[in-house]
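Tutorial handout. Part one gives the primary structure; part two gives the three-dimensional structure as tokens.
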Amino acid sequence: MLKAVILAAGVASRLRPLTNNTPKCLLKVKGKTLLGMTLDNLQENGLLDLILVTGFEAGQIREFIQKNYPHLHVEFIHNQDFAITNNSYSLWLAMQKLKGHSMLLLDSDIVFEPIIIRKLLESNHENVLALSTTYKNLLGPEEIKVRMDTQNRILEISKEVNPILAAGESIGIELFGQVATDHLYKVLEKRIVGEKRVQEFYEASFEVMIKEGTDIYAVDISPARCIEIDTSDDLKNAEKMLNMTVL
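Part two.
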């Protein structure tokens, strides 16, 4: 069974003062919250069963979903250490509920078209992530960059990948089959519990999976549009994107 996992625990310090008292996923673009747009996209693709990891202002997120999406089956997991951990830790918490399931993983701060999820679901690969090549020539130190082979199999995925060798940027949406989901959990368990790597990005564990033999492929989602929201400028650019895109 496929479950969606949404990570929404962070404090989004770069968006202050907008996020002083509001979780980033409840910020609005053209009157619609980031989380609401994500949930609509999941519904459009028939995905109604999800796990949502909260942290900062968790009560607001719960209230929003209970009020606006009462028909969804949502299991909330709270990351009480959200202020001192990164997204790999939040993912590890969620994956303790995913034994025997496949997973669609999403960051909660992406504005994107629903066709992107469909492209992953309809790909020929069991384990696949959404890759944007739109701004390939503008990749810098902050983007999660992807290097892959001629078969679109991922070789490296991190901020440290040489932009010259990168095929594009991972946008924060990944699909894993049951076997890979179980593998990822074991990797996270070792790194977080055994090695105390609680401040890592989860892509570090993806790289371990790849080295240990799990194949993960990339699907170019262009020309579908997407944008990650980290700054106030990103919010403005997302509004411009929505003016050009029917989501």
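Part three, for discussion. The longest helix spans residues 178-194. The chain is about 30% helix and 25% strand.
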